[in-house]
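Render this sequence as a predicted structure.
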Amino acid sequence: MSMPSKYTLLVKSTRLIRIVTSLSVGVVLVSASAWFGLGQVTSSIKRVDAFAGISSRPVKASSAVNYLLVGSDTREGLTPAELKLLRVGSTKSAAGARSDTMLLVHISKARDKAVIVSLPRDTLVTIPQRVGTDGKTIPAQQAKLNSAFAWGGAPLLIRVVESITNLRIDHYVEINFAGFAHIVDALGGIQVCTKQNINDPKSHLILSAGVHTLNGIQALKYVRTRDFDGMGDLGRMQRQQQFMSSILRKATSTGVLLNPIKLLNFFNAAMATVKTDSSLNTSDLITLAKQLRNLSASKVRTLTVPLSNVNFTVPNVGSTVIWDPTLAPQLFARLRADLPIVEIVKPSPVPSTSASSTGKAKTTIKAPAKASAKASSAPIVIDKFKTRTASENPCGALI
């Protein structure tokens, strides 16, 4: 058998180089087109002047980013068929701005970790002095946190959240019913797990105990349900946290954050009904999406702000929630400094005392027995804020 000539090898090598080059250029062009498309999508996002009139604000202590994510119960964007399935009334019958969900999302300066904190809507706060729609000055008053959104929209809500957390909000994202449902449907449904049967007459959700994959409308019912287990809003917030974790698991497992085309489709489905602050521009979103490629579900922690009283009655306000006066400030101080909220402590070797030849006590480091060496050297996790990671089993207990 004759060996191929140098000319033949050169031709084959040249052909291979052309094929590889063509494939590489194709990948670059597809990626570039997708990112360009993402820019077109984000340019059509509805904007809101979320920081209007806010003057005195907390100092930004690091390059970490804090988002205030608000779930608005407006019906805009839902079709008549979806409204019928959800059984929440029409856009006209539900006019006005209300928020059942408020999440503080902290993304580390390295963009490799995130913390999602649920802020109870019934938190007792002081609404600062403001100007009403009639131009009259309204004095400061005690109210529930979601009243700030109802009375003054994003600007008033941000003022209140910054005042009670001393944490500077960098960006604001508001998502309504339709946007939430479209996100779930764009991901092909989200898996949830319930340890007991659900039959909630208010959210109209009926689920048997076990694992279910919910579509957009079913998911809306799930995150809104609160009247079947006696846990009220606290149970609902924990289900919302678990649902957010499921979304993160699904998004990362299907490669949405790693694939510009899938990311574009995801944004197309979601952004049509999302509002953001006017300073959150296209390049911010594209940069964030690229940076979050390093963010895995195991590095996302969810929790409810620490509470001391879940049924504190205030005249003319009703039943309210009080934050823990020690743990809540500690939590936000850690976020402000971009420090871990869960501590990992490595145990020190155990010292032992023995008598020396001179009769004096002598301290030595005692090596652990082989059977217990592994256990004694295992790091200790201190999680005083009672967090969960987004990678945990969705059947985890509600506590």
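Summary. Residues 46-340 form a domain with the Aminopeptidase fold (CATH 3.40.630.190). The chain is about 35% helix and 25% strand.
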